[in-house]
Design brief:
The chain has 229 residues and is of the alpha+beta class. The protein has helices at 10-22, 41-46, 72-83, 91-121, 127-147, 161-170, 184-194, 197-209, 219-226, and strands at residues 2-6, 26-30, 54-57, 67-70.
């Protein structure tokens, strides 16, 4: 049994996608980040960086005490190794997959996140920041498009955790100021994954928890998300 501390954001969706694909038993623990649930004592013991997602594996492979983990990339890598699925066990294919997972963690996620913030949430529109992050997001889409030109999936021939990590960040492309039609290989890959039953189930879970998806952006949410020091 995996306890998943989750909200309906791209990083949260990564983990529900994996769990649905792998058929692992899990229990959702919703953490409404727009209402400050991420600062609860219980959650901070599991995720000291006060960010979702986080998991607690009640039956880790070593047979020891329940194992808490935070950071979505680390969670995906751990779960893939635990299940023996969606990540090659060794060799160059493993590292090719991991480099694209880390590309999402270090590039696409942070840049698209800043893009969302300055385009959609910032109280003052700073044109330089908006243009900067739209352009950088576009550059990253181009990198991905080139990769997918001669690869069916991001890691190569097989569907992996790299695809699971990247797809939820491409789904809100319109909110990032991106026309996905400009990236034909990304579009082909995006539509193929969109049709996967496990991805549909993962987003149905999100719909049950938070029909609007993401965060209801009001003054309370702004305080919890953007007022931290």
């Amino acid at each position: 049994m995996i306890d998943l501390y989750y909200w309906t954001t791209p990083n949260g969706h990564k983990i529900t996608i994996f769990l649905e694909e792998a058929g692992l038993e899990y229990r959702l623990k919703p953490i409404n980040i727009g209402r400050g649930d991420q600062f609860s004592t219980e959650f901070l013991e599991i995720a000291p960086n006060n960010r979702i997602p986080a998991i607690v594996d009640k039956k880790p492979e070593d047979g020891g005490q329940p194992l808490p983990l935070f950071e979505s990339g680390a969670i995906l890598e751990y779960l893939a190794d635990k299940c023996g699925q969606f990540l090659p066990k060794s060799g160059r294919e493993r590292y090719v997959t991991l480099q694209w997972l880390y590309w999402q963690m270090g590039g696409l996620g942070p840049m698209a996140g800043q893009n969302h913030h300055f385009r959609n949430y910032a109280p003052q529109k700073i044109e330089y920041a908006v243009e900067r992050y739209i352009n950088e997001t576009s550059r990253l889409y181009s990198v991905l498009d080139k990769r997918l030109d001669d690869n069916e999936f991001v890691g190569g021939d097989e569907y992996t955790i790299a695809d699971m990590a990247i797809w939820p960040w491409i789904k809100p492309h319109a909110n990032q100021g991106q026309d996905i039609e400009d990236f034909p290989h990304v579009l082909r890959w995006f539509r193929a994954l969109e049709a996967r039953p496990a991805i549909k189930r993962a987003y149905a879970v999100a719909e049950d928890i938070n029909p609007q998806d993401g965060v209801k952006m009001d003054e309370e949410a702004r305080k919890h998300l953007f007022g931290q020091r």
